[in-house]
Inverse folding.
């Protein structure tokens, strides 16, 4: 009977046409789940998808050490200036792999969807995932979908896990910072956090700041190709530059001294932070990296970084020092010093 | 914001510091009233640049810090009630009550929301007619006009499920209370510019006269504060005690008449307890009778509050300028921003938090 039907370009009218929003059945593992994958996720993922739809993806990996990372994304709102939860979910894990010096190869995508979420929004997120994966050159090889009752979740949560390969001779880790090393940042800080905050409820302060979400493994590859001993790489996401540098100082036992006037903080970020009582050093970034490198090769490396599209505004912001081990301190514009502490939790806008 | 950068210029700051050194012949104790000024002084290391003996005493002007424990406990009790949406500015969420904070209420299922404007709370009330929406109205004269406007709008629009838990405090009575304390060491005040931008400057000359203290209205950028210090020290050295406005770009002497009219309509002056300090007569606002039905304290009868401050916490003495934060034995030990004993450690504008966040290194390296 089916011989008479042309399956080319065929899409099932159910459930995607009959229900405009997620229903519990989409997570049940039955026909509706399959249709969601087949008719929404896979077309949206486009060329980045490599789905045999088995229980496991079977992967071929080149020689070298494997890097493996996972991250969950619960950002609200799902769409913000310059990006969405979709590209964050790809770039976040790609960058976690890149910060170990790995070339990212494969990603999994797992979704927790709240009942009632419009399928059109899920389609937009999935399309963003596909596009970001194609740009990053990674394949989406396995995934999962669960649905939670209305009220038990908040739209779309995405988890990605990724595998990459580290070339021989690359040794990057937070414990490797040495006294005298230079601290570099690949560009303006605080941009992503302010972009997301600017479109949260009640916070329309008219900024034109867009998220800096970007895959950084290309920039890392250029940096490693110089042969310079890049000791530490980290992307300062949640907790910002402050949390990341504190973690490095603690892992390696050095002190870190920043020069406040050298910090690349765009005026819009500074103004928004001033208005809300936030510290730009604690605001999240998504497309920036911090690098700790030998000071005598720092200028050479900065030149290479500035030639890459994601490192145009790279600069040196500080030095690893013997004083105050395991602490991060900034020299203020007026000549004083202040401790740069780990943020306690989420930053809270102050009353006035 | 280039306009602000100019008020952080290191060369101009160095020149002001030189002038302060040149004019100073003996020790002086100056109080900056506002927590925002404290934060700026410590963050930029301004106190490290002053002549020996010129001491900055940190005042009680952190609205989060001085909100009385009983009010926090009342807020917690209201927020825990089913059917209530409790709205607050972000920095109140971590302030400890007697046994917990708003974050704990939220994690236990209470509907506690951070809003950025009281009008957001009013919108929530409009959108959730079956819920009681309460806004935690705390703060000095700066935040009061927006809260007054919200109450005014709620009544005008007939939004019956909105109410305000009011704990507003006023600066001039606090200055008087500090000066009348037998242990007072304060010889001059840097008044808070944003308070004066609402209320004007007319309340200050009588205080300067009565207590013989110079009062200089200042802003919050490093140069604003240094200029305020320069002017107060100059007055002290010359034996003068006057009000000066060093923040004219934001503060007209008459204040903001529209905001003041709204405040007069919605609020009336009342006695108010300050956390860590105690009751100061005439130092707060409550809703006037016309708006009494929008008062959350009346709407939710919360009884059986047993308030208990930590016996280790000396934030009251910090708020009165009697001790510096690190002179408290619990500072950085039992009391840190992560596990604060008192509000001065939890609020981003609290003196203890400012010392812990920015100055811990100096304190560690200079302590015996």
């Amino acid at each position: 009977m089916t011989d008479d039907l042309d399956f080319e370009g065929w899409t099932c009218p159910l459930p995607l046409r009959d229900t405009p929003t997620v229903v519990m059945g989409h997570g049940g593992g039955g026909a509706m789940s399959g249709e969601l994958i087949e008719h929404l996720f896979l077309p949206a993922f486009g060329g980045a998808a490599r789905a045999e739809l088995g229980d496991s993806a079977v992967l071929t990996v080149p020689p070298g050490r494997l890097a493996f990372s996972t991250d969950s994304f619960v950002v609200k709102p799902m769409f913000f200036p310059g990006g969405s939860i979709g590209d964050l979910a790809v770039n976040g894990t790609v960058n976690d792999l890149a910060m170990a010096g790995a070339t990212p190869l494969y990603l999994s995508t797992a979704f927790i969807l709240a009942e009632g979420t419009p399928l059109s929004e899920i389609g937009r997120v999935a399309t963003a995932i596909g596009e970001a994966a194609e740009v990053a050159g990674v394949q989406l090889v396995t995934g999962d979908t669960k649905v939670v009752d209305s009220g038990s979740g908040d739209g779309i949560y995405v988890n990605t896990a990724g595998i990459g390969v580290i070339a021989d001779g690359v040794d990057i880790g937070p414990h490797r910072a040495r006294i005298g090393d230079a601290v570099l940042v690949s560009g303006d800080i605080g941009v992503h956090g302010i972009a997301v905050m600017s479109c949260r409820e009640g916070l329309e302060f008219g900024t034109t700041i867009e998220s800096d979400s970007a895959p950084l493994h290309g920039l890392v590859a250029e940096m490693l190709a110089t042969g310079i001993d890049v000791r530490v790489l980290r992307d300062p996401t949640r907790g910002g530059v402050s949390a990341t540098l504190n973690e490095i100082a603690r892992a390696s036992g050095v002190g870190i001294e920043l020069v406040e006037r050298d910090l690349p903080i765009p005026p819009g970020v500074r103004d928004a932070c001033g208005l809300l009582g936030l510290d730009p050093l604690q605001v999240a970034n998504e497309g920036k990296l911090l690098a700790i490198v030998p000071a005598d090769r720092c200028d050479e490396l900065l030149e290479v970084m500035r030639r890459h599209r994601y490192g145009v505004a790279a600069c040196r912001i500080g030095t690893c020092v013997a004083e105050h081990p395991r602490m991060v301190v900034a020299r203020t514009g007026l000549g004083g010093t202040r401790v740069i502490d780990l943020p306690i939790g989420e930053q809270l806008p102050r009353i006035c | 914001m280039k306009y602000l950068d100019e008020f952080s210029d290191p060369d101009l700051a160095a020149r002001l510091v030189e002038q302060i050194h040149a004019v100073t012949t003996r020790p002086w104790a100056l109080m900056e009233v506002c927590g925002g000024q404290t934060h700026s002084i410590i963050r930029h290391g301004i106190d490290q640049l002053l002549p020996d003996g010129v001491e900055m005493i940190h005042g009680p002007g952190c609205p989060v810090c001085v909100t009385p424990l009983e009010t926090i406990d009342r807020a917690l009790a209201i927020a825990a009630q089913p059917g209530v949406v409790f709205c607050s500015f972000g920095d109140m969420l971590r302030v400890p009550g007697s046994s917990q904070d708003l974050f704990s209420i939220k994690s236990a299922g209470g509907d506690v929301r951070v809003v950025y404007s009281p009008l957001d709370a009013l919108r929530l009330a409009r959108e959730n007619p079956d819920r009681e929406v309460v806004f935690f109205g705390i703060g000095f004269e700066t935040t009061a006009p927006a809260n007054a406007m919200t109450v005014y709008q709620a009544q005008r629009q007939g939004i019956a499920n909105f109410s305000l838990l009011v704990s507003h405090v006023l600066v001039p009575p606090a200055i008087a209370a500090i000066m009348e304390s037998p242990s007072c060491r304060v010889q001059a005040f840097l008044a808070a510019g944003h308070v004066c931008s609402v209320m004007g400057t007319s309340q200050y000359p009588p205080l300067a006269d009565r207590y013989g203290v110079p009062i200089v209205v200042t802003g919050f950028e490093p140069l604003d504060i240094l200029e305020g210090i320069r002017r107060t020290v100059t007055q002290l050295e010359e034996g003068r005690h006057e009000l000066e406005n060093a923040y004219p770009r934001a503060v007209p002497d008459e204040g903001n008449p529209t905001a003041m009219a709204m405040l007069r309509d919605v609020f009336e002056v009342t006695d108010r307890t300050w956390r860590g300090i105690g009751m100061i007569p005439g130092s707060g606002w409550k809703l006037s009778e016309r708006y009494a039905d929008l008062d959350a304290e009346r709407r939710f009868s919360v009884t059986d509050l047993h308030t208990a401050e930590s016996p280790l916490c000396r934030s009251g003495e910090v708020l009165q300028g009697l001790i510096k934060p690190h002179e408290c034995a619990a500072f950085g030990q039992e009391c840190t921003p992560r596990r604060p004993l008192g509000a001065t450690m939890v609020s981003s504008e609290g003196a203890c938090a400012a010392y812990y966040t920015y100055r811990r290194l100096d304190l560690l390296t200079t302590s015996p």
Chain B touches chain A through 48 residues (CB under 8 Å). Chain B has a mean pLDDT of 91. The longest strand of chain B covers residues 278-287.
